[in-house]
Amino acid sequence: MATSRLLRSTAAVFAATALLISGCSAQNSATDTSTPPDRTNGAKDENTAPDSSVPALQPLPAAIPADLRPYYDQKLSWRDCGVSGFECATMKAPLDYAAPSASTDLKLAVARKKATGPGSRLGSLMVNPGGPGGSAIDYLQQYAPQPAAVRARYDMVAMDPRGVARSEPVECLSNQQMDSYTQTDQTPDTPAEVNKLTTAYRDFAQGCESHSGKLLPHVSTVEAARDMDVLRGVLGDKKLTYVGASYGTFLGATYAGLYPSRSGRLVLDGAMNPALNSRTTSLDQTAGFNTAFTSFAADCVKKSDCPLGTKSADDAGRQLSALFKKLDAHPAATGESRPLTESLATTGVIAAMYDQKAWPVLREYLAQAEKGNGRGLLTLSDSYYERSPDGAYAN
User: Fold this and answer.
1) CA nearest 135: which of 310, 8, 308?
2) One MF term in GO for this entry (predicted)?
3) Is pLDDT above 60 for 375?
4) pTM listed for this prediction
5) Residues 237 and 124 occupy one common structural domain
6) What whole-number distance in Å separates Cα of residue 48 and Cα of residue 191?
7) Which helix (H) or strand (E) holds 291?
């Protein structure tokens, strides 16, 4: 199972903890758990409540400015990706669209799989999985098989957004620092723990500024959408055809707002409300995790070997709360230097909420954790954070 870290905010993850362990009732199965959109130019302060006064995104001029024309006229040099059927290329984009300069250009990674029925080809179909921060290339190559009828008529195209994966990734912490960060208690019980968590957040932000300070002011939804338009032009498509999921729907809606005359068929799967601020979106996401966990718990208690008991979903939530509390006091052994802390266990549970296919694995790993073996939940947590066995983290 791979989540591709489609939820990036640690704070949002642990805001969900209180509901995950409360046993609140809900009816629906696993839901979309995407993270809030980043701020765009002209947006209201992210801590204000959303309302009908949020201004609409203003379209950019239809004519391509002369100083951006070289980016639209560039030719991509396609090469083998190492993945069957895919080609890869690198596209240049301006770091700052307001002041483009070749000396500061970004190199953005692009991949495509050509239409299987070239005689009936309609153009390119661009995809984005959301996040923000998910690799569109990984998503296309590994997790997003499209119907044969679509693949026959469209070149399938993905571009890792600026600041992500292969496209000038934002760097914040070393691998060792990330290990420490992910183990930090996200539900502090004492002033000392509050101070430790506050310090961890501050160090993370300072690390991003230290390693990627020049890039950070130019990693936004608006700029990612503008990069998409450059790629559309480079590929020779008059209009953008696009499939976006989760936060990718916000990216698609932003594109449509900026380039209404160049927006073609846009499929927005699980559309986000672009008027919501990050706090409201995080609360909605928390509700989604709660719904997903309640569905898991309701299914689990029907099985005689459910590690959270067989009484009710509410009682299963209380059992999970007790497990987390035990791990907070006494982390479980994992067979390596990192024990399973409450923080890592919570992330492991959340990672399994993205897909019902992960539920049997989660039941097994919860049973192991109850017996003092934290290896399984640590594995789930590592998959969420994209930590490889050698200790390296993906962007």
Assistant:
1) 8
2) hydrolase activity
3) yes
4) 0.81
5) yes
6) 28
7) helix 278-300
